[in-house]
Amino acid sequence: MNHYAFYLANTLLHAYPDGSLWYPSKRILCVSDLHLGKSERIARRGGILLPPYETRETLWRLEKAVAAIDPAKVICLGDSFDDLDAAKSASDETRTTLARLQTGREWVWIEGNHDPGPLDLGLGLGGSHREEFKSDPLTFRHIAQASAQDVVVGEISGHYHPKAAILGTRHRPCFLLDKARLIMPAFGTYTGGMSARQAVLANLMSTDTLAILTGKYAIPIPLAACTIR
Predict the structure, then answer these.
(1) Can you give the CATH number for the domain in which 42 is found?
(2) Which of 147, 185, 190, 218 would be a feasible disulfide site paired with 17, CB 3.0-4.6 Å?
């Protein structure tokens, strides 16, 4: 078993080593921060030229996750595209892949700060488009709300691209889990990350937070044991 099973709001969830989340009782697969089209967006805005393959790589990984589980619903937890122009200029290959993945299942796009507002305005991307999505007792949204003391139990969010490591190892994308909320790692290929020990995340999470490292296995370690970067 390479995933990590845990309970949030008395609900069984599985954190997978690829950074996806499985909600078995509702057959929901959730991924966050795909940032499709990031290399194109950087080049368009005059930045460095990156190999334009990250969308293909991210969608290949997503196809693999969907094929392994065959979910009834997929939730993309915001920042699915690196900006609205990246969504508008999505290639035929990207659109075909998304259409294939959406066939026979529900698909929910949650709006993020990079792709605000409904993405379905004539873009032909399929699925439904929400500010947030509720599947009691869980709430899926892009950015965690309030502080650890005020959070509604059962919140699942993304946005921060948390990474963590233990001494002597490299930082890896990770889930952050406490008794009230889960912050997911970025699933996209060119996404970078924020150290899970940064103050903005410490202010959101409780002192007993677990960092669930991704990689070959999903490995839970106390956040307090992670190295500071």
Answers:
(1) 3.60.21
(2) 218
